[in-house]
Amino acid sequence: MIHPDDIQSNRPPKFGRDSILIIEDNPDHLFLVKRALEECMPGIKAVGTSNGQLALDLLTTNHGLSTKASPRLILLDLYLPTRAEGVLTLQALKNHFVKLDQPPVPVVMFSYSDHVEDINLCYRHGANAYLVKLPDYHDWVTYFSGLRDFWLETATLPPHQIF
Fold it and tell me: What is the pTM of this model?
């Protein structure tokens, strides 16, 4: 029987000079997430901010992101530092792309919380996925490899040109 890991794809990755926006208020977590992303997604620019307003400023000015494009994916911590601020940021991000008449960028929420209420709240407000944070760096790399495989190599997303 052939194992999927034994199959080599001749397909080039669907990402190159793309960026991922990370919104995380804990500087240690932000460092860990950026490092894990850079390890499993070479060529992706991991751009981090500590709050929702800074993220919206980045999206508005495109400063620090890939030229002429929105990020391919947004990772958003639910507790920034409060759950309410995380949800407000999620709503603001979704509204940002609607106002610009651009296709929305997928937003993946992440938190140490595995409470059903938190998970349901995020999906009700438009999150595209929810990840529970892991304490180990190597687990993060495994998580982000799966994230890369689905969101950046398998799923077909609309182009995100800045008009």
Answer: 0.82
- Distance from C-alpha of 128 to C-alpha of 117, rounded to nearest angstrom: 16
Q: Name which of 49, 53, 42 is nearest 17 in CA terms.
A: 42
pLDDT (tens digit per residue) in 31-51: 999 999 989 888 888 999 999
Opening angle at CA 122, ends 134 and 41, nearest 5: 45
CATH placement of domain 15-154: 3.40.50.2300
Q: Give residue limits of the domains in the chain.
A: 15-154
Q: Which residues pair with 76 in a beta bridge?
A: 23, 109
Question: What are the tokens at 22?
Answer: 């990370």
- DSSP category for residue 19: E
On whether the CB atoms of residues 104 and 47 are closer than 8 A, the answer is no
DSSP class of residue 135 equals S
Which stretch of DSSP H or E encloses residue 46?
strand 45-49
